[in-house]
Amino acid sequence: MGEQRRKFSREFKIEAVRRVTDGRETVAEIARALGIEPNNLYGWVKQLKNEASDAFRGNGKLTAQDEEIRRLRRQLADVTEERDILKKTAIWFAKQSR
In whole numbers, what is the pLDDT of the chain averaged over residues? Predict the structure, then answer.
């Protein structure tokens, strides 16, 4: 069987990301010192940038309001992508009709 997934506290992740952003050590050095994979560390940096104060909330359970925000952001991204596709299609058809 595979290894059991390790869990890290919010404080641990924030401290690890702080070390990365300080720039005194490489990601590989920090990961080795903390006993984690560099990919985990890169993921934490990205997560902290994307979610600001909500990063590393804890047990993964979102409040109803946070779930709604997440759902709406996903919906907005889908609609934006659809709009962009329709724009490109309209431009293509306009060029073909000339």
Answer: 85
